[in-house]
C-alpha cells in the first residue's frame, strides 16, 4: 500500500517480478478489495504464486512512527513484518514511511544479539561496480561500537550477496590521515582495526563512487546527507544535459543522433536500478523501497529482498557478531 | 608555490588574470628565482601591475599545520597572509595545504569579534544559479552558536557578492521536520529562527543542488563529506558518459555529432568554474584554491578573491555579528 503512488506501482512490479522468478511466491499485504481491483486490471497473473493477505490499515507517509506503532496494529506494514516473524514470508518489502517501517521492524523482529540498533544499507553504483554504504539515516548519533557493528553487517551483506570473500571496509572521514575526524570516528577506527575485518582505513567522500572499498561505514546523519546530496546532484546534471540537448532544433538533431548512446548512459546511471535499501541487524529481512519510485524501481527492491532471502546473510551477521563479542571478552580477560 | 603542480599553474593563471582585470595588481609570493624563471617563459606580462615578493620556504601539501606554523615562518603562505594583515594586499589566494592555510590565517589575521572559528565557504552550482555552503571542513564538531555564525557569514557573503538582499539560509538536516536531526542541529535551528536572518528552516541533501536556499549551513564534517561525495559522483558520471561515447566507432560518430552540445554541457558543469573557497570569519580575505586545479581553475579562485576584495564582506559580517551579540545581550537582560 505504501509509497507516493501505492498499488499502481507495487502491483505491476509484483506481477512482473513473478514472471521473472518462476520459483518465487509473493504475498501482497493490504486492502484486499483494492488489491483485487488493481490485479483485475492486469492480464495474466501467476495467481498460484500470488496470495493476498488483508490488512485494514495503512500508515501514512508523514505519520509519526510512534503513533503508527500505537494506533495501526493492522497496518499493511505491520502485518507484512508479522508474516516474516511467523516464518510465513522470508522477507518484507515496503515503499512506505521509513521511520515507521524501521520502528515496526525493530519492535516486531528484534535485533540480532550484539547489534544495538539496525542500520539502513544500500548498494551504490561505483566506477568499479557497486559498494555498500551504511547507515543511511536510521541512527543520527552513533557510538564507535555501533560503527563497528555497521562494518560487520556491511561486510556480511556484501559477501553474502556477491560471494566476495573478505570485502574491504572503509570508515567515512574527512581526511585519510588517522588524526582527522571527530572522537567517535577515531575510536571507531581503532575498533575496526582490531576486529576480524578487512579494514581498509579512512575513506573520504570522493572514495564512495570511486569504489575504493566494498563497504563504507558512517553514521546515519552523514550517510543520509551524502546519499541525498548525490540524488540532488545526479538530478541536476541530468536536467542540465536535457536542457543542452533541447536548446534548439539543431541541438535536438544532435540529441537524435546521440540517442542510442544517451539511452545507454541513462540506463547505466538509472537510480531505479539501485533501489532497495536493507534494514540490517534485524532477525528478519526487511527492504525499504524509495517512496517515489515507479514499478521498475520497486521490482529492484523486490530483487534485493529475493537475493537476501536466498542468502544466509542474517545467520552470517549473527555468527560474526557473536565472534566479535567473544573476541572482546577474551581481550578484556587478557587485559585483566 | 602551492598546489599539486605549483608555479606552472599559479603563474599562467596570474598573468591571464591581470589581462582580464586591467585595474588589478598582483603580488606573487614565493621563491623569487623560480618565479622569475617561470615568468620569463611567458610572453607579454603586465609587469607594472605584477610584483614579486620573496619567501624562502614552502609548506608541503602533507605537512602538519602545527609544524608548518612553528618551523616555516618565511613560507610563501605565511608571507602572503602577512601582506594582507599589513594592508599591502587586500586578499591572499593559495592552492596549498588547507590545514596549514587555515591555521596560519587564523593565527596571523585573527577572527572577527564574535566569531569562534573561521569556516570554509564555497559557492556551488545549483539548478537555480549558485548557493553558498559552509562549513566545508574547517570545524569537525560545531556548537549551535557556531552554526548560527556560519549562517550570518554565509548570508553576508551572498548579499555582498550577488547584491541579493536578505538571502535565505537553510540548516542541513536529514529531514525537513523540526524533530529530525541531532541535538546540535535542533538547537542551532532555534538560534537561527531567533536571529535577524531570513531563515528558511531545515533542508536536506537534495536541496543543495536544487538551490532551495541561498546559504546551506552545516558542520565541517558533514559539509566536507557532501562536497567530496559530489566531486566523486560528478567524476563517475563524466567517466560513464565518456565511456559510452567511446565504446565503438559508431558511438564515436554519435559523439562527433553531439560534440557542440556535449562541450556546452561540459563547460556548464566544469568544477574549475566554481573553484575558490573563502575562509570566512577572519579579519582579512583568504581564498583557498583546490590543490589539484589547473590554470583556469586557479583563475577562478583569483576572481573569487577579487570579488570579495571589491565588496565590504568583512565589515558586513563584523556588523551583523555585533548586532547579533547585542541582540543576545538584550534578550538575556529581558529574561532576567
Automatic annotation (TrEMBL), chains A, B:
Homodimer. Probably interacts with PlsY. One of its GO terms (biological process) is fatty acid biosynthetic process. This is Phosphate acyltransferase. GO terms for molecular function: phosphate:acyl-[acyl carrier protein] acyltransferase activity. Its main location: cytoplasm. Pathway: Lipid metabolism; phospholipid metabolism. Belongs to the PlsX family. Catalyzes the reversible formation of acyl-phosphate (acyl-PO(4)) from acyl-[acyl-carrier-protein] (acyl-ACP). This enzyme utilizes acyl-ACP as fatty acyl donor, but not acyl-CoA. It is found in: Cytoplasm. Keywords: Cytoplasm, Lipid biosynthesis, Lipid metabolism, Phospholipid biosynthesis, Phospholipid metabolism, Transferase. It holds the Pfam family FA_synthesis. It catalyses: a fatty acyl-[ACP] + phosphate = an acyl phosphate + holo-[ACP]. NCBIfam families: plsX. It comes from Pseudogulbenkiania ferrooxidans 2002. The lineage of its organism: Bacteria, Pseudomonadati, Pseudomonadota, Betaproteobacteria, Neisseriales. It is an enzyme of class 2 (transferase). GO terms for cellular component: cytoplasm. Its EC number is 2.3.1.274.
Amino acid at each position: 500500500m505504501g509509497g507516493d503512488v501505492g498499488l499502481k506501482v507495487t502491483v505491476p512490479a509484483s506481477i512482473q517480478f513473478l514472471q521473472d522468478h518462476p520459483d518465487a511466491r509473493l504475498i501482497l499485504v493490504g486492502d484486499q478489495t483494492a488489491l483485487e481491483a488493481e490485479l483485475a486490471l492486469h492480464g495474466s497473473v501467476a495467481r498460484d504464486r500470488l496470495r493476498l493477505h488483508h490488512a485494514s490499515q495503512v500508515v501514512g507517509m508523514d505519520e509519526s512512527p510512534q503513533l503508527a506503532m500505537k494506533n495501526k496494529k493492522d497496518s499493511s506494514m505491520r502485518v507484512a513484518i508479522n508474516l516474516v516473524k511467523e516464518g510465513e514470508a522470508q522477507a518484507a518489502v515496503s515503499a512506505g514511511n521509513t521511520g515507521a517501517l524501521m520502528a515496526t521492524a525493530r519492535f516486531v523482529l528484534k535485533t540480532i544479539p550484539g547489534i544495538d540498533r539496525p542500520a539502513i544499507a544500500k548498494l551504490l553504483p561505483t566506477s568499479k561496480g557497486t559498494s555498500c554504504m551504511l547507515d543511511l539515516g536510521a541512527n543520527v548519533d552513533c557510538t564507535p561500537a555501533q560503527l563497528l557493528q555497521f562494518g560487520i553487517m556491511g561486510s556480511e551483506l556484501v559477501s553474502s550477496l556477491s560471494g566476495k570473500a573478505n570485502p574491504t571496509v572503509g570508515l567515512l572521514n574527512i581526511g585519510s590521515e588517522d588524526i582527522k575526524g571527530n572522537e567517535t570516528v577515531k575510536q571507531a577506527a581503532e575498533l575496526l582495526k582490531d576486529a576480524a575485518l578487512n579494514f581498509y582505513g579512512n575513506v573520504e567522500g570522493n572514495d564512495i563512487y570511486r569504489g575504493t572499498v566494498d563497504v563504507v561505514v558512517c553514521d546515519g546523519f552523514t550517510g543520509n546527507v551524502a546519499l541525498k546530496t548525490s540524488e540532488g546532484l545526479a538530478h541536476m546534471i541530468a536536467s542540465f544535459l536535457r536542457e543542452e540537448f533541447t536548446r534548439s532544433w539543431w541541438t535536438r538533431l544532435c540529441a537524435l543522433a546521440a540517442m542510442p548512446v544517451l539511452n545507454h548512459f541513462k540506463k547505466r546511471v538509472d537510480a531505479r536500478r539501485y533501489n532497495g535499501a536493507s534494514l540490517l541487524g534485524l532477525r528478519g529481512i526487511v527492504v525499504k523501497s524509495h517512496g517515489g519510485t515507479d514499478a521498475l524501481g520497486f521490482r529492484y527492491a523486490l530483487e534485493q529482498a529475493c537475493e537476501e532471502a536466498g542468502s544466509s546473510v542474517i545467520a552470517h551477521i549473527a555468527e560474526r557478531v557473536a565472534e566479535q563479542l567473544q573476541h572482546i571478552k577474551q581481550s578484556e580477560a587478557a587485559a585483566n
